């Protein structure tokens, strides 16, 4: 059985889709924000892999075909951006200010917290790109000497966290303007958050995907300076 | 053929993005170059929206599923983070919330100032 699963091309993808469908079903039935379909499916898959003693590489062997689509999908984020560009032109001062403040807050707060807990330089670098999209964050961590695998984990937790808490945070802190909601979500939690922003609304999603590009590029530039601070 | 052509366009842009990633010595992944290229192509009317729209919206819809394989990698990272996990979680939670609130507030503040102050910088 395990040999078959290792050889199977479809097992990993099918398991992911089935788990995600179950996650969607649970969310629809229970209507509670904690039942994030991505988080549920990740939990289910890890549980299944552990219970049946299947290692991650076996699963990833098939599931990496999903990962393969990530770059083309990232490219597609240009479409909602293009569709909403008029809105951006009208509000470019607010949007750019929001993104710049998000990037600086992220890098600055990581610096501050790492200093408080006196973490090592490597750990600091590992956290530095935590709010940007996984692909860029990995490159930054690698470039400046962080632990890349932990960076990926932290970026994903950040994304899931942002995805889960976005609606509550925006309500509690009275972030109500659609554009501000989109910028807030993706500045904090990149593409996983953007998935949430698209669930909330088209403008929120478009603003969010716009912010991924700009905050990613900005972080690449500024992280080089921040890397020297600790 | 419609979907094949659209997917072809998107993969071509991804490929050009890969080439740029190779040539330009910056930690910017292929997908980001791809977004910029597709956006510019649409803005400059090199491509029409209809030439990429259907496949793009499909891929964006399934985006949350595409993160699952990487996210499941959490199960292999536990050995590395177990000693400091509470500190890691604290930093992750606090910085995430801080960034969300600050960037949301700054954006909203300027939007509302502009609404009140008229259109001088519109």
Question: In words, what does this structure look like?
Answer:
The complex is a heterodimer of chains A (230) and B (122). Chain A is mostly helical and 230 residues long. Chain A has helices at residues 2-7, 11-30, 37-51, 56-68, 70-76, 78-83, 85-90, 92-116, 121-127, 134-144, 148-172, 178-200, 202-226. In chain A, helix 2 (11-30) crosses helix 3 (37-51) and helix 8 crosses helix 12. The longest helix of chain A has 25 residues, at 92-116. Chain B has helices at residues 2-23, 30-43, 53-61, 63-66, 68-72, 74-81, 85-117. Helices cover 78% and strands 0% of the residues of chain B. The radius of gyration of chain B is 21 Å and the shape is extended. In chain B, helix 1 (2-23) crosses helix 2 and helix 1 (2-23) crosses helix 3 (53-61). The interface between A and B is large, with 106 and 77 residues.
Radius of gyration of chain A (CA) equals: 19 Å
**Any low-confidence stretches of chain B, pLDDT <50, length ≥5?**
none
General form of chain B? extended
Alpha-carbon Rg of chain B, integer: 21 Å
Distance between the termini of chain A: 50 Å
Indicate the low-confidence ranges of chain A by residue numbers: none
User: Helix-strand pattern of chain A, N to C?
Assistant: HHHHHHHHHHHHH
Oligomer: heterodimer
Shape, principal axes of CA atoms of chain A: globular
The tally of beta strands of chain A, per DSSP, is 0
Distance between the termini of chain B: 43 Å
Strand content of chain B: under 5%
Helix content of chain B: over 70%
In DSSP terms, counting alpha (H) and pi (I) runs of 4 or more, how many helices of chain B?
7
> The biggest beta sheet of chain B, please?
none
Helix content of chain A: over 70%
Strand count of chain B: 0
- How many domains comprise the coordinates of chain A? 2
Order of helices and strands of chain B: HHHHHHH
């Amino acid at each position: 059985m395990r040999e078959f699963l290792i050889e199977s091309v479809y097992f990993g993808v099918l398991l992911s889709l089935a788990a995600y469908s179950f996650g969607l079903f649970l969310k629809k039935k229970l209507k509670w924000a904690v039942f994030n379909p991505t988080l549920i499916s990740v939990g289910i898959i890890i549980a299944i892999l552990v219970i049946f003693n299947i290692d991650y590489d076996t699963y990833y062997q098939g599931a990496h075909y999903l990962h393969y689509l990530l770059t083309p999908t990232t490219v597609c984020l240009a479409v909602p951006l293009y569709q909403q560009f008029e809105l951006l032109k009208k509000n470019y001062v607010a949007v750019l200010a929001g993104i710049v403040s998000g990037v600086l807050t992220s890098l600055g707060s990581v610096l501050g917290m790492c200093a408080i807990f006196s973490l090592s330089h490597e750990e600091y670098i590992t956290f530095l790109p935590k709010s940007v999209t996984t692909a860029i964050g990995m490159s930054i961590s690698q470039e400046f000497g962080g632990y890349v695998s932990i960076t990926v984990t932290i970026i994903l937790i950040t994304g899931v966290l942002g995805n889960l808490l976005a609606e509550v945070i925006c309500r509690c802190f009275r972030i109500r303007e659609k554009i501000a909601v989109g910028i807030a979500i993706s500045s904090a939690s990149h593409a996983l958050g953007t998935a949430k922003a698209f669930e909330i609304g088209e403008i929120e999603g478009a603003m969010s995907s716009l912010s991924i590009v700009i905050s990613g590029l900005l972080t690449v530039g500024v992280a080089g300076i921040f890397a020297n601070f600790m | 053929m419609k979907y094949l052509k659209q997917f072809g366009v998107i993969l071509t842009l991804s490929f050009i993005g890969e080439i740029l990633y190779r040539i330009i010595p910056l930690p910017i992944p292929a997908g980001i170059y791809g977004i910029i290229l597709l956006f510019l192509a649409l803005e400059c009317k090199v491509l029409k929206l209809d030439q990429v729209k259907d496949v793009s919206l499909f891929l964006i819809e399934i985006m949350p599923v595409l993160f699952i394989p990487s996210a499941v990698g959490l199960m292999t990272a536990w050995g590395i983070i177990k000693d400091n996990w509470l500190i890691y979680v604290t930093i992750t939670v606090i910085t995430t919330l801080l960034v969300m609130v600050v960037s949301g507030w700054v954006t909203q503040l300027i939007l509302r100032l502009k609404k009140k102050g008229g259109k001088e910088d519109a």
